[in-house]
Amino acid sequence: MRINQKYRMLQESYLFSSIQKKVSAYQEKNPSAEIIRLGIGDVTRPLCPAAIAAMHKAVDEMAEAATFRGYGPEQGYDFLRTKIQQYYQKKNVRLSLEEIFISDGAKSDLGNILDLFAKENRVLIPSPVYPVYVDTNLMDGREIVYMEASKDNGFLPMPCEDVKADIIYLCSPNNPTGAVYTRAQLQKWVDYAIRQDAVLLFDAAYEAFITDSGCPKSIYEIEGAEACAIEFCSLSKTAGFTGTRCGYTIVPSALKRDGDCLQKMWLRRQTTKFNGVPYIVQRGAEAVFSEEGMAQCRDNIKQYQKNAQVIAKTLDMLGIWYVGGENSPYIWMECPNGMSSWEFFDDLLERANVVGTPGIGFGENGDGFFRLTAFGTQEATQMAMERLKEVYGK
User: Fold this and answer.
1) Contact between residue 230 and residue 248 where contact means Cβ atoms under 8 Å apart
2) From CA 253, how far away is CA 97, in angstroms rounded?
3) What is the Cα gyration radius of the chain?
4) Is the dihedral of CA 262, 268, 273, 277 positive or negative?
5) Alpha helix stretches (DSSP H) within the chain
6) What percent of the chain has pLDDT over 70?
7) Distance separating alpha carbons of residues 313 and 318, to the nearest angstrom
8) What is the tens place of the pLDDT at every residue in 320-346?
């Protein structure tokens, strides 16, 4: 018996544990300090009332033999898939129910989708990056090529014809940088993927934060994408389902490689390896896509967007370069005074009692940058920015 030795190539998952150790040590020395956390990408506002009511009703259904639900379809109940189909129609994207797969979140499917692809495929991944893109491919032993995101390109790398790739990862709005691709930029990526005969894995987990009509919310708004792209989305940030777990993945029937239909392959994979999302959760998700639910979710998102605006205005006043904050809940700022990511983390904690995420934790290209999130409360975000102005405005 031998283990998968590719796991030895993984770095220890130390970022958030290191942050917590530093914060705990500081609090021990300064027990009266009021720490404001703007680092973790979790939401703070509760589920919308429509979703809560629907889940309560579903719980009651499980108590009656006539309405009890046992094993559900691994690809999701049609009542939820139909709502998602209608949601895409509003974006002028037409999907069949068979192309929509309900998941327990984008992260799971972004890793599991690799079951469809040979291990000798070459993978193109942006840097800095959401770690799941890198780690899941390292576990399989695939060759990874990085596309360099930087201040010079606004952390929005574009395709290079000299780079050959079989699998391409894009995230827009981006985690961690908050940068968002325009329609013209995504068209170039789709055209590149088609020329390369590659599959584009498009992470749209933060699409609900896009307000600019020039920035697509779905890759399928781009001509030709149905023949080269798989889209992953989540209700974690759209509707606060971070603790409830529900998302969806779109695999078009037109997407074929080596004579095989990837939609049929994914269906086969899911029916073999996935138990499906609980009925109660799917009823809550269905309510999210109702007219009432969407309005309630938009109200929550507007609160986070206001927080992002407060952060962005503060950085503008301080003359600090950043990207994100508009069309995204993340603000990716350049560390002031030439500090490294960890140096700024320590300085911000000690002088302002504010916690963020060091950019180096998302890859080497992230050093010298820092991620703030808009998912805190309005009061905490405002107070944190007042502290920044007091400390760095001098």
Assistant:
1) no
2) 11
3) 21
4) positive
5) 15-29, 49-61, 78-89, 106-112, 131-140, 183-196, 235-238, 262-273, 279-288, 291-318, 341-352, 378-392
6) 100
7) 9
8) 999 999 999 999 999 999 999 999 999
- Tens of pLDDT, residue by residue over 118-147, are 999 999 999 999 999 999 999 999 999 999
Nearest to 334 by CA among 343, 236, 94, 326: 343
Write down the pLDDT at residue 11.
Answer: 82
At residue 243, the pLDDT reads 96
Whether residue 196 is predicted with pLDDT greater than 90 in this model: the reply is yes
DSSP 175: T
Burial 300-321 (b: 16+ CB within 10 A, else e): bbeebbebbebbbebbeebebe
Residue 169: closest CA among 203, 220, 197: 203
**CA 284, CA 298: separation in Å to the nearest integer?**
16
d(CA 226, CA 256): 10
> Closest Cα partner for 147 from 133, 136, 131, 163?
163
Residue 157 · residue 192 · CB < 8 Å: no
Which of 148, 188, 191, 198 minimizes the C-alpha distance to 168? Answer: 198
Taking the C-alpha atoms of residue 27 and residue 198, their distance in angstroms, rounded to an integer, is: 49
- The answer to whether 186 and 222 have CB atoms below 8 angstroms apart is yes
- CB within 8 A of 74, min separation 6: which ones? 270, 271, 274, 275, 276
**Residue 40 pLDDT level (bands cut at 50, 70, 90):** confident
Tokens representing 207 are 């699409």
**Helices 341-352 & 15-29 angle (0-180, nearest 10):** 30
- At residue 394, does pLDDT exceed 80? no
| Pairing verdict, β 256-257 and 260-261 | antiparallel
pLDDT at 120: 97
Is residue 41 pLDDT above 90, yes or no? no
Give the residue among 237, 236, 255 at the shortest CA–CA distance from 245: 236
Query: For 89, how many CA atoms within 13 A lie in the half-sphere containing its CB?
Result: 9
Distance CA 283, CA 379 (A): 33
The position carrying tokens 């680092």 is 39
| pLDDT above 90 for 275 | yes
According to the model, what pLDDT value does residue 16 have? 85
Say which residue the tokens 């997407």 belong to: 255
